[in-house]
Specification:
Layout lengths: L1 H15 L2 H16 L8 H43 L15 H26 L7
Helix pairs in contact: 1-3
Length: 133
């Protein structure tokens, strides 16, 4: 069941993300708008588009969430593998998505300071006579 839903969600996600489906949705809306005068802009006429868009949106949320969860998991696993393969890498970052907000802020500050140090070293190096930048 899970694999069937995964394949279905992935396929639908690819399909609805295409330009052709966007054009189709745009044509449906234009067609609906054109029929407004025919139906006297009635409550039923408005209810048709409201109900249709609500149903599509409701279902798409689940399909897109499933696809994003899967993609996110795959990216995490790829990064985990890269961390594992680099001897000097801090493997404690493999579970970074489970850290608290405070731990993430601390780590972010650490990386920002590291980036500033690297930028400072580069600037110093490029300012030395004969150094290549």
């Amino acid at each position: 069941m899970h694999d069937l839903f995964r394949r279905f969600a992935h396929r639908i996600s690819e399909l609805v993300g295409s330009p052709w489906v966007f054009v189709l949705a745009l044509l449906v809306i234009i067609g609906w708008a054109i029929t407004g005068p025919v139906f006297g802009y009635s409550d039923t006429w408005q209810l048709v588009i409201n109900t249709g868009t609500t149903i599509v949106t409701f279902l798409m949320v689940f399909l897109i969430q499933n696809t994003q969860n899967r993609d996110s998991r795959a990216v995490h696993l790829k990064i985990d593998e890269l961390l594992r393969s680099i001897g000097r890498a801090r493997t404690d970052l493999v579970t970074i998505e489970n850290m608290s907000e405070e731990e993430l802020r601390r780590l972010e500050t650490e990386f920002r300071e590291l980036a500033e140090k690297v930028a400072k070293k580069r600037a110093e190096k490029s300012g030395q006579p004969g150094a290549q930048g």
